[in-house]
Amino acid sequence: MSTNKKLLSGNEAIALGAYHAGVKVAAAYPGTPSTEILENLAEYKDIYAEWSTNEKVAMEVGVGASYGGARTLVSMKHVGLNVAADPFMAVAITGINGGLVIISADDPGAMSSQNEQDNRHFAKLAKIPMLEPSDSQEAYDMVMAAFDISEQFDTPVLLRTTTRISHSKTIVETGNNSRRQVEDKVFKHNFRKYVMLPANARARRPLVEVRVEKLASFSETCVFNFVIKGSPELGIITSGMSYQYVKEVFPEASILKLGFSYPMPQELIKEFSSRVKKLIVIEELDPFIEEYVKSLGIVVTGKEFVPIIGELTTDVIEKAGCAMGILSEYPGTKADYKKSALPGRFPLLCSGCPHSGLFYTLSNIAQRSTIPGKKQREPKLIISGDIGCYTLGALSPLNAMDSCGCMGASIGNAIGMQKAGASEKLVAIIGDSTFLHSGITGLIDAVYNKAKFTLVILDNRTTAMTGHQEHPGTGKTAQGEDTYAVNLEEMVKACGVTNLQVVNAWDVKAIKTTLKASLECDGLSVIISRGPCAVSVRRGINPGKVDINKCTSCGLCLSIGCSAIRKAGDKIVIDGSLCAGDNCRLCEQICPVKAIYPDKPGLIGANSE
Amino acid sequence: MNNYSIIIAGVGGQGVILAGNIIGDAAIASGYDVKKTDTIGMAQRGGSVISHLRMAPKIYSPLIGENRADIVLSFEKMEAARCFNFLKPGGIVILNNREMPPLSVGCGKEEYPSDNEILSFLKQKTDSIYFVEGSTKSAAIGNIKVLNIFMLGCLSQFLDIEGNVWRESIIKSLPAKIVAINISAFDSGIQSVKPQ
After folding, report:
1. Cα distance between residue A57 and residue A438, in whole Å
2. Domain residues of chain A, as ranges?
3. Which of A78, A177, A250, A404 could form a disulfide with A385 if both were Cys (CB 3.0 to 4.6 A apart)?
4. What is the ipTM of this complex?
5. Residue B125 and residue A606: Cβ atoms within 8 Å?
6. Cβ separation B106–A313 shorter than 8 A
7. Chain B within 8 Å of A309 (Cβ-Cβ)?
8. Is the pLDDT assigned to residue A607 strictly greater than 60?
């Protein structure tokens, strides 16, 4: 096994490293770019891995497992740590028993997120150590070291990645490593450590400061903080993915790479700074390192030239280098090429998506639909949206969403808008996984405070957007065991909702009738629109076909936003290789002249793309 | 040992990611350092997929900078043009002659560019443009889904990775029952381009 060279993503490397470090319990809620960590850990049948209801629960499960003595990993995307911040801050005070490693996968550039917050601030806020890998090898090495650091200093450890680290594949050599046999710890009754009554919390407070001091001196000699000696003319302090770009753009420079980036190594930084003529910090997002270096009274350049917004790339750093006068010319684009205005290829709801019927109908009622050639009408209703595939309902041609901020917010936002005296009728839209994640408390609030709006729960029986993870409503655990599936109807009723309707997600007539009735009633109403995700069903048989003798090219079917239906010249055609066929039949139901009919079976199948 | 920076482009569902993984595996087996990254976003929902793959004795950035891709391998015609900014002047473009109109084109709001437009646009940087009938040939082989492996066959003509290394990586990466048809696709890809 000595030639153990694998091409692994950062997430795969973290899972493998945690497994080799003897992790026993792992908990997470899916979220790009963190999802694959738990997916990979769930494959190991000799550990316990769960999809938790949300990140807060995942963190609490992780804290409990650590108190119970197990090496534990909790993973989430950056905004997930907002949800989990309460138990995260609590365990920072109590410390741990079994090693506890928390993964925050940040998303510079907000490629799959509602923001690009820099979660390095969370390490400083909680006063816990932080590691930042710059490739999969470091991700593997660091997660193993993180468990030891956690146990050595009685602290949770934050391992912060970014999308580019989590999803890039780079070579990992694991040598002769295999799973470490970690000595079993047991829970020790310790009222002063684990019961955060104010008196105990105050007593532990100084211990946290002592811990930070110890960690700061550990940081000075930690193997993950190192200097690469180069030219004394230019010194660059960097961390994470930025390190790779710096190595490529400034091959001659002296580099201080911070892999253990909180608390920072004060002496190492001072020493490095004193040996170079010009000092710059190149880091993605906020000036986290730069502000610390400046606080030491060191003259340093950084965010005046390196963008604070978005993902860094070698191109971005080269441009910054030119602006700083370190590079003489930007070696990127030299010639002025003619630009080409290519049609955009944006994400959209899949053909056969169970959300399409609901959005199509809502879009019509709310006067949002844009039929080619027809004038846009004044929008009706206020539609409060949420996080998931169905956020794509906000895009053209559906245009059926007016707000979307964070997981579960659709319901609370609708309550607030109604209480603020919104003149329009309100609709809140949330998916099944998101409802279970953090919609339930909002619904209880709505009933309790007599809010008036219509809540639509889009129940596609999976966590679709992140790639079909199980959740408490699916009847399967992360490790594939059968389990109880939450009954959404019973749960909604138990919250006190009396006006509840369940509709088939592909029955346009039923959706229309139910939506209209719900919007006419004065109180709180809930509609569960149910149909399994089109991706898990895959392709159906009997794709739709257009009878060109009947079709008037009115364009109504185009307003579904289905990728299988398109206009070719002045004719409407359905691409049989994309159509979901019998799993959908939405366009057939809405065609006013009944020009769409199911084609003969057997025409698609194995050959569909 | 040559250095290569390769952009692999396509549409969600075309097998771009798997193709990149196979190249990476074959490159490691040939002694290269490899880094691979995808700008995938919400691509499973029909968006553009762009994979960056770099192989050399030592690689730092997984992302390819502007004007620095030696090869653009595109599974869809228009997506090749979308990667124009990465292509280095004089680089190689291999593009599958398959048109997948996005929704904006399907709705009649925008026009799909003509072959001529795509060609003249790409020709600003290079004359090494190889049109291949990947989808047609894949369908003839028996399943349009083997397109990604067909495209690897085309690509293999430009890299110094041996044929048997490619085949081993393909075999390793696919379920046994579909290996034979994919090896046929790979061989068909090899036959479909002759580097000038």
Report:
1. 11
2. 5-176+192-221, 225-324, 356-537, 544-598
3. A404
4. 0.95
5. no
6. no
7. no
8. no
